[in-house]
Amino acid sequence: MPSISPELLSALRCPVTGSPLVQDVDFLVTTESHDGGALRYSIEDGIPLLLPPELLQAATSAGSDQHDAPA
Fold first, then answer.
1. 26, 18, 24: which is closest to 52 by C-alpha?
2. Pairing of strands 40-44, 47-48
3. Which one of 9, 31, 48, 66 has the lowest number of neighbouring Cβ atoms within 10 Å?
C-alpha cells in the first residue's frame, strides 16, 4: 500500500467537492458525500489520480498511443 505523507494529504482536496481527503488503502476518499456517496480516487505508484470520475473514464479509454506523439 503506497502511503501518502500526512503533509501532502493535508494539502489535497477533492476536485469535485473541495473537501479534504483521507486515505483508505489504495484510494483517497472524500470526507463529504457527493450525490449520495463518497468519491474515491485511486493511488497508482504512489501518485493520487485526482480526476473527476467522468474525466478519468475519458483518460483511461483514450489509450496510451494517443498521448505519445512521435518526435
1. 18
2. antiparallel
3. 66
